[in-house]
């Protein structure tokens, strides 16, 4: 077999690259964004350069790609100024968006003073008032170029874009003449821009370059068009594969035209050492050299970029972005959190995918002979000592902690404490301080923990870095507590109540802990952030009593913790309907708003009345109300919130194995039957029979006999009873009208209502 | 007529019986040894096979091509699926060919279930626009789906199966080895046939891997599951290579068009072993910045390795493919492999 050099095969590589990118970012969207695969404790915003924030490290390329809009905004601002603000921004936007025909009609209408569509009347009025027909003519020309430059509107179309080259070549001749003859410099420049643009999209790069050199560059006006024209000029060189020149020009755009910073960087593309060296040789000033090394640092090697920049200018702030990028890139390698390994080549990795608690002692990846990191840190240390800027000292402190040189980290932190820092830098100081103190903490003593907590109290979780710090330390502490079998403190540090609350002893221990008012600084910090309070736990216990029908006991628990049981119910739990409608009940006017506690009290009172009365009507009615309460506190009732707790809201399972069940109509059924027994007329008996039937049906839904999609309802004992014993009642007639199931059972077929669920 | 002796009758009868047996065996062998379609994948954006590519196909009697029509990727800025690298035919294809559409898994990860229908409409619209005067008998979708995207991808495939416009078109899907082994998790796609991509089985991003495209060890972890796979399978075998570069033990990317032969000639690249190299000076290389101590692993499937792959499938599976396709056709195959290498590969399945 022969082994010659294989030639290019671009589509294979594109596909391979797609596969590789797919591999690389395979887990990006599984659960966690690829930017979240690692902890990040160093905030790049310490450099206080908002104009470069799009270049902060992210796995998604650039942070903010809305540069297209900002260059358009610049252009619009220029036109507004040109028109002496006679055109409002909305009208200008409308003018920009008109197509060629619409622009033609508008121009004609203005010139001939004829009417336009209502939608254009404001634009017409304002534009006509400028009396600037030359500007209108320019817009006509600009619209003629647009079809050439607009991207294909429908990506899914296979039709090729047909370009009539002859028309555009003719346009170029006219545009050149207009460039030459127009005395208005603003419009002159814009005509020249249209020439460049047209030549570029006709792929005549040499002519575009020539026109730029001979004509465009002589028009002395500096605005958004200058930037865009330079982009086309640079783009021509790029298309001609003269990367040396294109990279040089893109660096100029990057520095001089902030609105095009991102697109300039995305086009910056050194291909080989020779073209890169040629680019460097083109730099005419130190600033230009710094810019080139700055772009090099973002594109290729931040350390080398910084080194070269600071050789040229020891005080250059071009190096700052590279500094924070270098640190954030290092974090990506060194502060892996436990998520990445789960998804990388998931099916080729037979290891267990169970999430392990993050452990500080093994989480940081220390590379053997990691000379690159050592070199970076030495460089940053030297710079911090030489230029003594807060940014570099802050960076040095953090980097030395990262490399586990706690002594040097502490030294830099001490230096930093002497500065008056802005808010971001102060937060970074606190973060590094917390990390350093935590790293040097050898035991979980009260004073050590209180010290850590004091710092954490000052860290804001508004930033990712602050949130990551707390997340990391909490997870690490939880790990330590688990190893000591101190499950309560592990839970407090890293809430994972799923298993914790299953154990009744643990439940009670947490309740006691949270109820205690005497806590250390450390405990107070975590209790403050712990999602549940003592009243949540007491309420949970009370709800178990409610579910068991032990309302007295529930009241006692609510009373013991005044903040508990105060949540209001959305509907009256003592009302009931033939056909359950929770929304209807919730929207209905309520004269009395019940809370969980007052509901329990009412239940106690109702039952007492029912039990103690000698009057059948009173007994019947009160048993009915009691049954309604019991019904409405189930899944099928309007008062599900009665039994909602911190546990089921979080998806936890706490102790009491019956937990949150969807059946549980048995108690209600019992009391509907009692109500029935004491009912004194057939209408009421029919009503209570129907309520019993509902309970019976709900229990069937909750049972294994119910299989979704097979049978919608089961006519049980009470359906039959209603039919046989109460067919003459008005109530039964109402049930037939309102409940499709019962109506179907009664054989009314297509006349039955179809209840929407 | 003279009466035949018993001996003569016996001899004649034996001879007839022998002929019948031979005929039966011949017919049986003929019926079980159906000719396998010989195919190539054509993965370039412009369909314009050169004279040598055409000659190769003719010599090998290749009667089928899998032509990639386009990729579908997820645009994270515009939040939508987009076609890219749509094929253009500079000349018509005179062979039966199967349009292939590659859809990244990320598309299905990001797409809502509701939007699968509109994705299907867009993809089929573009396929039909490209087909224009061609009526394929098979269409193939290539997607490295996972258990998280099974539902949406299979919904997409179901739409195709129930689309009356394609009622006479067979549907195939590429199947990767992990989908064979973990079929209970990733499911079996609702297609007529699977195309087993018998390559890219190793851990590409791990520095210790010798050849992530194909190696016996990694292949061995999966082949025993082949016979349990409930889809009839065709096979795609690798005839390509690439290089991966590493920094501090972590993979950084693929080096375009870079093979051991390329690296052997590059300045400031030191050869460490057969397919491993080290960068000894920071440098730009085709737009990528290589740094001192970066490691490069060149991977290639030569004819011996390709043969191993082909034989392994025969050895470990009773599946009889109808088509064997080589990934992928490009002019450099002619200079890299001998004709006999290809013949041997295809003949493995005769």
Query: Which range does the strand content of chain B fall in?
Result: 25-35%
Structural class of chain B: alpha/beta
- Strand tally of chain B is 18
The order of strands across the largest sheet of chain B is 1-3-6-7-8-9-10-18
What is the mean pLDDT of chain B?
Answer: 89
What structural category characterises the helix and strand content of chain A? mainly alpha
**Count of discrete alpha- or pi-helical segments spanning 4 or more residues of chain A:** 39
For the largest beta-sheet of chain B, the strand count, sense and barrel status come to: 8 strands, parallel, barrel
Helix content of chain B: 25-40%
Shape of chain A: flat
- Number of β-strand runs of chain A: 0
Could you list the spans of chain A in which at least 5 consecutive residues all have pLDDT below 50? 1-31, 339-369, 656-663
How large is the radius of gyration of chain B?
25 Å
Task: Outline the secondary-structure elements.
The complex is a heterodimer of chains A (757) and B (350).
Chain A: H1 10-24, H2 67-82, H3 89-97, H4 100-112, H5 121-130, H6 133-149, H7 165-181, H8 185-201, H9 205-214, H10 224-239, H11 243-256, H12 261-267, H13 273-282, H14 286-299, H15 302-312, H16 318-334, H17 340-343, H18 360-363, H19 371-387, H20 390-402, H21 406-416, H22 423-439, H23 446-456, H24 464-483, H25 487-493, H26 497-500, H27 504-515, H28 521-529, H29 534-547, H30 551-560, H31 582-587, H32 596-612, H33 616-632, H34 646-650, H35 666-678, H36 682-702, H37 717-725, H38 730-738, H39 740-745
Helix pairs in contact in A: 4-6, 6-8, 7-8, 8-9, 8-10, 9-10, 10-11, 11-12, 11-13, 11-14, 14-15, 14-16, 15-16, 16-20, 19-20, 20-21, 20-22, 21-22, 22-23, 22-24, 23-28, 24-25, 29-30, 30-32, 32-33, 33-35, 35-36, 36-37, 36-38
Chain B: H1 6-32, E1 37-42, E2 46-47, H2 51-60, E3 64-75, E4 80-84, E5 88-89, E6 96-103, H3 105-110, H4 116-131, E7 138-142, H5 150-161, E8 170-175, H6 177-181, H7 183-186, E9 193-197, H8 216-220, E10 233-238, E11 241-247, E12 250-255, H9 260-264, E13 269-273, E14 276-279, E15 283-285, E16 288-290, E17 295-300, H10 303-316, E18 323-327, H11 332-336, H12 339-347
Parallel strand pairs in B: 1-3, 1-18, 2-5, 3-6, 6-7, 7-8, 8-9, 9-10, 10-18
Antiparallel strand pairs in B: 3-4, 11-12, 11-17, 13-14, 14-17, 15-16
Helix pairs in contact in B: 4-5, 10-12
